[in-house]
Design a protein that fits this description.
Length: 89
């Protein structure tokens, strides 16, 4: 197989930190882990002037980070909405 992806996200409830008017606020802590492995023929790397394995890995990591940073707030918002919906059911 030339590519694989593995992800894990440990989520835990943090002890209540703030109480206001009988409403206890809780927090969630998320510790995500993501590994993406892509393999391609070495001649492709040699065909790109100035390309190195390290530079390619950094470019790929930077691109993944940019996507995760862009999509993260929407995912957190959806999590919050679903949690509130669950509490109210």
């Amino acid at each position: 197989d030339n590519q694989s992806t593995f992800s894990l996200n440990k989520v835990r409830v943090v002890v209540p930190t703030l109480s206001t008017e009988n409403n206890t606020m809780i927090s969630f802590e998320s510790n995500p882990y993501l590994r993406v492995q892509v393999q391609f023929p070495s001649f492709l790397l040699k065909a790109i002037p100035g390309a190195t394995k390290e530079k390619s890995e950094k470019t790929g990591s930077d691109a993944m980070r940019k996507v995760l940073d862009a999509d993260g707030p929407a995912a957190l918002d959806a999590f919050q909405q679903e949690y509130v919906r669950w509490l109210e059911s």
